[in-house]
Specification:
The complex is a heterodimer of chains A (about 280) and B (about 425). Chain A has about 280 residues and is of the alpha/beta class. In chain A, about 40% of the residues lie in helices and about 15% in strands. In chain A, a hairpin with a 4-residue loop joins strand 7 and strand 8. Classes of the chains: A alpha/beta (about 280), B alpha/beta (about 425). Chains A and B meet through helix 5, strand 4, helix 6, helix 9 and helix 10 of A and helix 1, strand 3, strand 4, helix 2 and helix 12 of B.
Chain lengths: ~280, ~425
């Protein structure tokens, strides 16, 4: 899939170029900076650790440059009243195949049009695709707002594991910070192996070498810990009691005469069950 | 497990089981910020934290304070004459459950209803105390929905409004004469009186708000009620007219409809084999048309058609009864008319209006925007559409759409397909 060529440069030198970046958002934006600066036409933008060389490509590796990345963000936001940089970031976090190219194509469309109105033209295939992905991301963010299940540790930390379809952990911190301003919490992405923590003052990303992962067993026996079987010394003594109350509540409010498994599964797909307290196996 | 917690477990089982027939689950429409580093917030958008196997949303801890009740309403599982196990929470029980469920992100807040023990004020006083202590002692900003008990004093209702996001009085039976038959101790004026009182109090605060910056929030999520469908002989037209008048006069935010679940044999209510779920669903669709699509009750139903068609949705029903209003020109028609096309929802209609400013829309654009073409194609004109003008045979369209609804859905296209 090739984006429309930049109008100003049809005889560019680097037609058909493949770009490689380090997998970070800043890296992707650095690529896009180079593409615009040198008036190039990319055919693909790939992460270095997943890229496979072929004979036909002429790959060029771009080293991440934070200043360049910021200039791209600034360029987008100046033209769109800060709306589009959030959209572009979400496209990146989707981790979908070809999402890097879509980021480029959306930025190209904004630069060519010069304002945000292009984002309302859903008859443009790139804009429509971006809007569809944004909707999927929003749904996943909303699901994480709903499906995070905290457990309380002995020293008062509320911890949780998630396994979202997209890399939405960077997008959900604000919500949990506003809501649980008076409790310390940690949400761990079990697929991507990093976490987000809040100590009642500020949010911080934490990597797997954080001591809490060892104490909670989140990394040792990940599923067991996430489902409430953390080591006895780690879990708050009343934690299991509240889990049991919640499970019983969940059973009691169901109206069996109205059972509707299809609807139940549409709202709560099976892949989310492993970290949902109410869907777990009973342990008391 | 300790004795105390097994006691709570038993209470929770009884008092959530008895509360589950209340269809209201909404936790939206209220804004309550967490400004003082307390617990919780409501940001206007509700969250369904879980879904039970009947497919219903679990958003709030929905419980009765007690299922002891002095009334004997035939449709109600907690009625005095029904032989069920009785229980009652303490104020502390409810607060502890709410806060500990909330901290674990199980719920958006509390929905507290109750049977009536002793009298209305005695009951209401306890519900208010739960809400007051959650707000004032525990700095809790999550969502609180409290039942307004008919007959409770204005002072208590007023106080409830200061702490709760939403209050509700359930009408349950959609006509006064039917209500008299199944709940002889109740009447409409007792139910409507608190609604009117709360409405006028809320308006008083809203009037003050621009002048007094510190005016407190009063019932920011408004009021709701519930009507039971199928326990009494009212038709859909009666039900929708009542709902419409509640939206207009009492300014309710939501009317919930609950297909009657035959909970126990009582010869004052019908013995249905299953709850009327399709009818309930059609009434919800009609309610949606009233609130978001600019329809009036008379456009949806009338004396000659007093019941909704169970086979097709009410918007399609309207289009089929009004062939003179179609086809709608997608590139020119007003938003209001685009919105009336079956298969075009609020989001698609808005996308159509914004996209057509940039370019002329073709049928392929509509499909990608999210229009359900297998419905809409009979009611629109648009480039690329092959429906011959004058071919508007309503009975054929009706049959074709019903048939296509029953056909298995086509495989979803891949994102980058």
């Amino acid at each position: 899939m090739i984006g429309r060529p930049p109008r100003r440069n049809l005889d560019c030198l680097g037609s058909g170029m493949v770009f490689i970046y380090d997998g970070s958002y800043e890296g992707l934006l650095s690529c896009i900076f180079v593409i615009f600066k040198e008036r190039l036409i990319p055919v693909a933008i790939n992460q270095e650790d997943t890229y496979q060389f072929t004979l036909l490509d002429s790959p060029r590796t771009i080293v991440t440059n934070e200043d360049w990345a910021l200039r791209v963000i600034k360029g987008i936001d100046e033209r769109t009243q800060a709306h589009a940089s959030a959209l572009v970031y979400k496209l990146f976090l989707s981790e979908l195949p070809l999402s890097e190219m879509l980021v480029y194509q959306v930025i190209l469309a904004i630069m060519q049009k010069g304002d945000a109105s292009i984002l309302e033209n859903f008859a443009d295939p790139h804009i429509l695709k971006a809007a569809q992905i944004e909707k999927m991301i929003h749904r996943e963010v909303h699901r994480m707002h709903a499906f995070v299940r905290f457990q309380k540790s002995r020293d008062g930390l509320f911890y949780s594991a998630i396994d979202p379809d997209f890399n939405v952990l960077p997008l959900i911190g604000d919500h949990f910070e506003r809501r649980y301003a008076d409790q310390s919490w940690l949400i761990f992405d079990a697929r991507r192996h990093y976490g987000l923590s809040y100590d009642q003052h500020k949010l911080a990303f934490v990597s797997v070498d954080h001591p809490v992962f060892v104490q909670s067993g989140l990394l040792l026996g990940l599923d067991a810990a996430a489902q409430g079987n953390a080591p006895h010394v780690f879990q708050d003594e009343r934690e299991k009691e509240y889990q049991l109350l919640w499970k019983n509540y969940f059973q009691a409010v169901n109206i069996t005469e109205r059972n509707n498994t299809k609807l139940h599964l549409r709202h709560m797909p099976r892949r989310y069950w492993k970290y949902l307290t109410e869907k777990g196996v009973s342990r008391l | 497990m300790t004795n105390m917690s097994s006691n709570i477990l038993e209470k929770l089982r009884i008092l959530s089981d008895a509360a589950k027939y209340d269809a209201s689950c909404s936790s939206s429409g209220s804004k309550r910020a967490n400004l003082t580093k307390g617990l919780g917030n409501s940001d206007g958008m509700g969250i369904c934290h879980s879904y039970t196997e009947d497919g219903r949303c679990v958003s709030l801890l929905k419980i009765l304070f007690t299922n002891h009740c002095i009334y004997d309403c035939a449709y109600c599982v907690s009625r005095r004459s029904n032989d069920v196990k009785r229980a009652a929470f303490t104020v502390e029980d409810v607060i502890d459950l709410t806060i500990n469920f909330y901290r674990r992100n199980y719920i958006e807040g509390l929905f507290l209803s109750s049977g009536i023990f002793k009298n209305a004020d005695y009951t209401m006083e306890r519900l208010v105390r739960v809400a007051r202590e959650l707000r004032l002692l525990h700095n809790f900003n999550g969502y609180i929905h409290v039942k307004a008990i008919p007959g409770a004093s204005p002072e208590l209702l007023h106080e409830a409004g200061l702490y709760a996001d939403r209050l509700s009085v359930n009408i349950e039976i959609p006509s006064e004469s039917s209500l008299q038959k199944v709940a002889p101790e109740k009447n409409y004026s007792d139910i409507i009186a608190p609604m009117n009182y709360l409405r006028s109090e809320k308006e008083k605060y809203a009037d003050e708000k621009p002048h007094i910056k510190s005016a407190p929030l009063f019932m920011p999520g408004g009021q709701s009620t519930q009507l039971i469908v199928g326990a009494s002989p009212e038709n859909d037209w009666d039900i929708l007219q009542l709902a419409n008048s509640l939206y207009q006069k009492q300014k309710l935010k939501r009317v919930y409809y609950s297909g009657y679940v035959p909970i126990a044999t009582d010869n004052r209510v019908p013995d249905l084999s299953a709850p009327p779920l399709v009818r309930e669903n059609r009434i919800y669709q009609a309610d949606w048309l009233l609130r978001f699509y600019g329809f009036s009750v008379d456009e949806i139903l009338d004396k000659n058609n007093p019941d909704l068609d169970l086979e097709i949705d009410p918007k399609l029903g309207y289009a089929l009864r009004h062939p003179d209003k179609f086809p709608v020109d997608i590139n020119r028609a007003d938003y209001e008319m685009v919105l009336r096309v079956p298969g075009i929802g609020v989001k698609s209609a808005k996308k159509i209006i914004s996209s057509r400013r940039h370019q002329h829309l073709h049928i392929d654009h509509l499909q990608k925007i999210g229009v359900v073409l297998k419905r809409a194609r009979y009611f629109i004109s648009c480039h690329g559409l092959v429906v011959k003008p004058g071919n508007f045979q309503t009975e054929n369209i009706r049959r074709a759409i019903i048939a296509s609804d029953r056909a298995p859905a086509a495989a979803q296209l891949g994102l980058f397909g």
